Amino acid sequence: MATELLTSETLSQLYQEHHSWLLGWLDKRVQCRLQAEDHAHDTFVRVMASGRTPDLNEPRPYLATIAKNLLINHWRRATIEQVYLERLSAIPEATSLSMEESAIILETIQEIDELLSRLPEKARKAFFMSQIDGLTYVEIAEKLGVSDRMVRKYMVQAMVLCLSVEF
Questions:
Q1: Which residues pair with 5 in a beta bridge?
Q2: CA 145 to CA 16: how far, in whole Å?
Q3: DSSP H helical segments within 3-120, as ranges?
Q4: Residue 86, exposed/middle/buried by CB under 10 A (0-12, 13-18, 19+)?
Q5: Burial grade of 146 (CB within 10 A; 0-12, 13-18, 19 or more)
Q6: CA distance 24 to 63
């Protein structure tokens, strides 16, 4: 797929010709006009940030793919936040966290989720089974239908990824 530099004219034309369609497409999926407007805006920001525009006969599938990925990220963050808030509400008031502490913890959890989403599915599952469920490599291997040697490789992948993060 050939690409060309994104000019303001190209971006403007893309926006004018497809923004309304994209907004409707998003509105059907999120069923909230304000949220759809935010995601449409973010989609065009991503196009603009890339600095390049694909040479496409049909730009709508391209825009829809970007928007769909934004929605997936949004839904994943919302799910994490919901689970966190449910768990937080179960903490007795005497030990409850401040709003700032809560926001920091939620942001950290979301960053960890984003980091671990880079792993292949089985490596991510193996990491969670080991670190959260406390399973042995043999137990993980049985559950994933792989050898315990493969589980070791998955764990190395996960640990290398975790160690690659700069603080």
A1: 52
A2: 51
A3: 8-30, 33-50, 59-89, 99-116
A4: exposed
A5: middle
A6: 13
Closest CA to 52 of 1, 88, 18: 1
* Alpha carbons 122 and 112: distance in angstroms, whole number: 17
The CA-to-CA distance between both ends of the chain, in Å, stands at 37
The pLDDT tens digits of the residues spanning 100-136 come to 888 888 888 888 888 888 899 999 999 989 988 889 9
Residue with structure tokens 């923004």? Answer: 19
> pTM surpassing 0.70?
no
Please name every residue paired with 3 in a beta bridge, in sequence order, or none if there are none: 54
Residue 116: phi and psi, rounded to 5, are: -70, -20
